[in-house]
Amino acid sequence: MLQTLLITLKLHFRQKIQLFWLFAFPIILATMFNGMFGNISESYKLHTFDMAVIENANWKANPGLQTLVDGISTGKGSSGSGMEGRVTDDDDGMPKLINVVSTTSRASADRLLADGKAQGYLYADSDGRLHMAVSESTQSNATDVMANSGSLGISLTMLNNIVDLYNRNDMAVADILATNPTAMMDRRLASSIGASSGYTKEVKLTNFKPDGTARYYYALLGMTALMAMSFAVNAVTMAQANLSALGIRRSVAPLAKWKQLAAGFLASWFCSFLSLAVAMLYIHFICGISLGGREWAAFGSCAAAAFSASAFGTFIGALPKMPTGAKHGLCTTISCVLSIFSGLYGSFAMDLSDMIARRAPLLSLMNPAQQITNLFYDILYYDSFAPLFRTLGTLLAMSAICLTAAVAFLRRQRYEYL
User: pTM of the prediction?
Assistant: First the structure.
């Protein structure tokens, strides 16, 4: 049986077309996803950029301006590249939006913008109000959807809001001091100045906050698992005397048929798992889709998905009166069609998958591509492993049904002629 297992593995790895579709194709598709969706999440993250600060007499007359700039700057000076980088936070969570480039006049600040050494500048007027100006190229990049992959527009909007908030607070304090100076002795009033309350609050409802495009990669893993059914189809074909020359020789071999089929199933399971593991590792390390620190659970899910794919493939391979080519075509058709309803083919397919899950949960439950995709959802979205175990139970139940049917088809087969 061990020798049969090793020979079957060698035969699987010699099938070049099969290796392409099960190893190269998922990587190619994941690379395409990364090219199309890789910058979507980046466009919602804050980035730093170089800002000149005009430290003239108006600026020095208002110490609060320097305090504000120190709070939102990195303190590392200009990067000199004219390109924004990833924003950082200090201990109190204050975002570091700018790299400060010190200057003494607006004329010198304009020269810095023209030379590309700064993307904008901050200055104070005679009344102590803070103002912001940006270069034409920065404004163009901020409004250009294609060029704004570095979230420059969001960063500029946040900086503009900080400038407006500072000016409003400064005007409020000046008005209070002019009309009722003793009011500033009230601690509640003093602490309320500068405080801004938001109308929304981010609440963490899931175990991990994954990338918004991760669903497409999970659906790709579901399709990869179903395409791996062809390994099991080949394993069954090589054990049937009416479908291959190797099957004829095996039919007269002293090794029991169930051992031949068991060795073929194990070889298919191993190859399917290897295919899924390679795709998952590529998606995780190259495409940057996190697994939430539960890599061990992801490998277990790959093993369960590979077992189910081998069971489904064994059932298809055992179907009587069907040539091998038709069985492979059936595997490809099933994997492509069921992947539509698991959300692989874009936002429309995702919406369709969600609608089926809401309105016809039984159909979603019966879709193996959706259940394999759900394995990775369950790993990331839930604190408990109970949903993962339920999905595993569903896949194992479908696998048991397919294996039982396959055994019924293969048991005591007889051939009138070969």
Answer: 0.68
